[in-house]
Known about the structure:
Blueprint: E1 6-9, E2 12-15, E3 18-25, E4 28-31, E5 35-42, E6 45-48, E7 52-59, E8 62-65, E9 69-76, E10 79-82, E11 86-93, E12 96-99, E13 103-110, E14 113-116, E15 120-127, E16 130-146, E17 150-164, H1 168-176, E18 181-193, E19 196-208, E20 213-219, E21 223-225, E22 230-236
Parallel strand pairs: 1-3, 2-4, 3-5, 4-6, 5-7, 6-8, 7-9, 8-10, 9-11, 10-12, 11-13, 12-14, 13-15, 14-16, 15-16, 16-17, 17-18, 18-19, 19-20, 19-21, 20-22
Amino acid sequence: MKTLGNLIINGVGSSNGGSFEKVELNGKGTVNSDIECERFHCNGTGTIHGNVKTEKGKISGAAKIHGAVKAESLIINGSAGISEAVSSQKLEVAGKSSIGGSVKCEVMVVNGKVTIEGDCEAEVFRAEGSFSVDGLLNAETIDIKLFGDSKAKEIGGRKIKVVQHRETLFKLIKSIFPLKLEADLIEGDDIELEGTAALVVRGKNVKIGKNCEIGLVEYSGDYECAPDSEVKEFRLI
């Protein structure tokens, strides 16, 4: 990478972008073109009118990126609005993020809230927050603990597990505002579901736990269903 030094904005300032070793936006910074850097930190209010390519990215403030993001790791603790696709080996969302394109990564961890307008593809997808995927959520391992309403049009994976949180306070909140994972289709090898509403669930081994509403279950191995869940139709294929 050709390095031009550091870009650091502590107050109000703007830059035309370029290649840097480190980019820090600690105040109200605007960058009017693409950025390529080893480290990208947005601790204040940052607006990027272009793409961001970095090895390590961290957004602790509020960032609006009018382009795509490519990173080895990206941590979002604050608020981020990214208008195009995100590609990262590891993506953590602990704050709030909206992504206008698709997401592709090896490991994705959601502890806050994320909205993805495209598909989400990962090796491992873990969520203890709330998420919305307009397209396909696809991962080898999907592990979801429901803390908020979540949805994806379709969910596919080798191992899919959805559980409802069991803390006492959370039970009280849930009794007032029932939480659900919603999907049209859930398809995988080993599927365990709680608190899920789906039109079709298709897998080898399927376990329907509590508080589920399923239209059709198709299975080729083992099948279980909790008595308080509703499955309109199930069949061995």
